[in-house]
Amino acid sequence: HECRRCPSAGSAGRVVKCWCGGVRVRRIYRPLPLAPYLEPMIGFFNINKAAGMTSHDVVARMRRVVGRGVKVGHAGTLDPAATGVLPVAVGQATRLIEYLTDAQKGYRALVALGTTTTTDDAEGEVLEQRAVPPLDHATLEAVLQQFRGPIMQVPPMYSALHHQGQRLYDLARQGQHIELEPRPVTISRLDLLAWSPDTAHLALLVECSKGTYIRALARDIGAALGCGAHLAVLERTFVGSFTVDAAAPLETLQQAADLSPYLLPPDVVVSDWFPVTLSEGQARRVGNGNTVHLPNVAEARVRAYTADGRLLALLECPDPAALAAQWQPLKVLQ
């Protein structure tokens, strides 16, 4: 800070008048440096979400765990009542979430027969109760077979999907009912784990594609059995390579003095992509968003590393067999 008329200094941090004639003293501001991290935090946490929390709640708490200035996002929403795997990305790994949301997902579900609800799960109001007919293993298997493989599924009204710019659950809470179009999903595995006639509960193991609602699956199984049903309990057992056996409770991460044992590398979500190591010149080109030629690479999609083993980018080539094929950066992690 200095006087605009004479070379004398003013008072630190304040605008005051100078002795030379009342000219204001102007402070020259310079930004304070941020406290540097030892290394940028980037990767995924495999969190075992507890019941009663929304996926947004988990992200909000993880923001406090990793500290100011670190991006945080989750891959695949879990209903508040559901438990199990919730992958959470931090830092530049948030740009790779889209490659995980498309991954196969697994669930253990408990379906309560005889009762339908407004939300298709135990959180909603009871709509109707019916007697459950006598059921045996063969009858249940015949019904479950209808839901294996590619099917068309109508999403629940209480869902985060949009209709004319509004969330469906907002419209449902306003008392509106929208006729929803069925959407294609794939149930790659649907196993009957147990059937309890006394409680009218079905225990199911489900593996399915992106966009599948297990609540809707429970609802539709009940309709096919003629008695109605809702989802009573749900646990997500895996998302891609993230499994519930390896997941850590959120409380464990909140209390951990060192997060590094729980932080998975960002390339865990693209481990099936072909790996290549770039030269210094290639890494510079890719870092600037330019294409590169990769000799002796036949794969259309590759994960590119720097010489020191850091994941730099995801690259794609429309015709890798071409003589002068060029790989274009899809994502660049700086």
Radius of gyration, rounded? 28 Å
Structural class: alpha+beta
- List the quaternary state of the chains: single chain
Termini separation (Å)?
36 Å
Helical percentage: 10-25%
SSE order, as H and E?
EEEHEEHEEEHEEEHEEHEEEHEEHEEE
List the helices and strands and how they pair.
Elements lengths: L1 E2 L21 E2 L16 E7 L5 H12 L5 E3 L8 E8 L7 H4 L3 E9 L1 E3 L8 E4 L7 H9 L3 E5 L8 E2 L2 E2 H6 L9 E14 L4 E8 L5 H12 L3 E11 L2 E2 L4 E2 H6 L7 E2 L9 E4 L2 H8 L13 E5 L5 E6 L11 E5 L2
Parallel strand pairs: 3-16, 5-14, 18-19
Antiparallel strand pairs: 1-2, 3-5, 3-17, 4-5, 6-13, 6-14, 7-8, 9-12, 10-11, 12-13, 14-15, 19-20, 20-21
Would you mind describing this structure in some detail?
The protein has 334 residues and is α+β, with helices and mostly antiparallel strands. It has seven helices and 21 strands. The chain has helices spanning 55-66, 98-101, 137-145, 168-173, 214-225, 250-255, 280-287, and strands at residues 2-3, 25-26, 43-49, 72-74, 83-90, 105-113, 115-117, 126-129, 149-153, 162-163, 166-167, 183-196, 201-208, 229-239, 242-243, 248-249, 263-264, 274-277, 301-305, 311-316, 328-332.
